[in-house]
Amino acid sequence: MTNRLASSTSPYLLQHKDNPVDWQEWGPVAFAEARRRDVPVLLSVGYAACHWCHVMAHESFEDDALAAYLNAHYVAVKVDREERPDVDAVYMAATQALTGRGGWPMTVFLDHDARPFYAGTYFPPEPRHGMASFGQLLEAVSDTWVGDRPRLLEASGRITAVLSARAAVAPADPLDHARVAGALDTATTTLASQYDGARGGFGGSPKFPPSMVLEMLLRHHARTGDQRAIAMVAGTCEAMARGGMYDQLAGGFARYSVDADWVVPHFEKMLYDNAQLLRVYAHWWRSTGDALAQRVTRETAAFLLRDMRSAHGGFISALDADTEGEEGRAYVWTPQQLLEVLGDDGPWAADLLAVTSEGSFEHGTSVLQLRQDPVDRTRWAEARRRLLGARAQRVQPGRDDKVVAGWNGLAIAALADAGALLDEPEWIDAARDAAGLLHDLHRDADGRLLRTSRDGAPGRNAGVLEDLSCVAEGFLALHQVTADDVWLERARELLDDILDRFRDPVSGGFFDTASDAEALVLRPQEPGDNASPSGWSAAAGALLTYAALTGSDLHRTAAEESLAALVPLVAQHPRFAGWAGAVAEAWLDGPREVAIIGEPTDPATLALRRAAVLGTAPGSVLAVGPPGATHPLLADHGLVAGAPAAYVCRHFVCDLPLTAPTALGRALGVRPPWADTLGATT
Question: In the prediction, which pLDDT does 680 show?
Fold first, then answer.
């Protein structure tokens, strides 16, 4: 028999529909039942690609006896954190406050008013390492609920009050150029002190891809010439791409490395990681011309288009870590398996890919590493093709095939940027298709953005700030690459909705949920970045970009007010404010506005456009159009002596027009080796 999750649209919830636990979805029905039965609520939060979520499900939620006790003494609620990031954010804050750490699966006990009174993450089926079993915990909480409920209710009220006080963000001083520059210099120095010079990345194990921090460092180097910044980018990007966290056969990155050497990954592949890393590697290539940067950019884009694209044109959320309950099974190899696939090339490939009889993973298996580029690239290309074909015959990891708006916004921006840089129109077309899906399908009856869709059907949950902000960022990137004004207008609609329903008048920043969204025990508000940009920092960036493209004082002021509260976080905790730092770098640089006037197909126009695309000026924006174009950035500009011309502006105050791509390249920080090629394109 299935439980009440059988009608869910979430792949994660559907994984639990056959559990003997009588799960139901988050909502008023669950809490009404808890009141009627006079039992507490057990909230379990996870996501489809989460390895330990699968482990706890198998050990505890599939156990008939434990499920019977749980059903008798609790109302059990399952939440997909990717569908309901607002619910996840509230109770993750409670879990971290109570235990000092967080993670998934997240296990929280709630009273009838949804206030938390006890929380944790994974609990084992038997007592282990000083940790009570899940069954013991259920019994202890139930006994206390019955025998000493006032103590639990007092605790839930106290915890909620503390969380509400912590969530408040105080107003900040207005932005000041010297203060922002000082914060960014301090952030770079702090990052340099935390940088692992031997292995890349920051801190010890586990190591997560610091995508937003890398983007901030790229912009900092472009603005200041600080060699520490570009060295940290190069060292980290190379280490990640050489190790086992990067899929040497199919392209794309796993979620993180469990060790400090980037050898053993946590094998799930998330859209938000790969979208952000695609953009970072493309920008690293733009800054340095590094061959590895170009290869990883191309392979990661190919991975997204081949393995993460939905039938309806969007990008799915994740590929699972597990295959038939075993982590990494689809990805690891033994020397004998390489020999069976490659024959005489097996030992060569084993040496190249660090596959040994001892193994680097479990049970004598190894993840694939590529610490040095092979001398014989043709031989490697053939071996890679054959190994990937053999791997495709294995049982493949599960797919979380829901389309999340915000993460697709990240993918749209990355594919548009990278496609323009590497002259790959297919990538830009894919970005356009995903943007069309979001605009056409992810809409409620009032035209507001919805968070998810699946199988071509819209989801039920409203978009949160992350969704509106990241989709606006994607639309703005697509507008600049395609010169299609419809994406500028659609970005404006999203940004105006943010200003209308998400603005915090006290801090000048934003709440994660809209003013008319479901009321939770507190209204989540997270300024710091996590695995992807916070909605707050993403909104600040999109508002700044839109203002630069249009000259809108309203959006510029909102960007500056929201960024002001983030600058202290950049200085104090730069590893958790990378995107805020990247936006601050853009603000400090202007950002520069580039208007190119000329017929779109004129070779001279295309040469100027190429110089602008290769520019490293932080956050610079681009508009291209013929004389008489009505785009705000192009209006009142014209040809120079009948030839296409580029105008470089800040706050719509422009320098003298430029007609030579080399001159435009110098104005926008085009770096070797590209600076020397611009004249050849005229």
Answer: 54
DSSP letter for 676, please: G
CATH assignment, 593-681: 3.40.30
The residue type found at 22 is: D
- Predicted TM-score (pTM) of the model is 0.94
**Side-chain-facing half-sphere of 404: CA atoms under 13 Å:** 28
pLDDT of residue 1: 60
What is the CATH number that goes with domain 177-322+399-589?
1.50.10.10
Q: Pull the structure tokens for residue 667.
A: 């104005």
How distant, in Å, are the alpha carbons of 296, 418, 474 from that of 301? 8, 8, 16
pLDDT at 167: 72
**Which residues are CB-neighbours of 590 under 8 A, at least 6 positions away?**
548, 617, 619, 620, 650, 651
Say what the pLDDT of residue 322 is: 81
CATH superfamily of 11-167: Glutaredoxin (3.40.30.10)
| Distant-in-sequence contacts of 488-491, Cβ < 8 A, 24+ apart | 488/546, 488/549, 488/550, 488/631, 490/435, 490/439, 491/542, 491/546
| Pairing between β-strand 24-25 and β-strand 75-80 as defined by DSSP bridges | parallel
**pLDDT of the residue at 246:** 98
Task: Quote the CA–CA distance of 75 and 159 in Å, as a whole number.
Answer: 21
Facing residues of 253 across strands? 246
Distance CA 430, CA 419 (A): 10
The β-bridge relationship of strands 75-80 and 41-46 is parallel
Q: What are the tokens at 384? A: 């890679």
pLDDT for residue 525: 92
* Residue numbers of the chain with a pLDDT score lower than 70: 1, 680-682
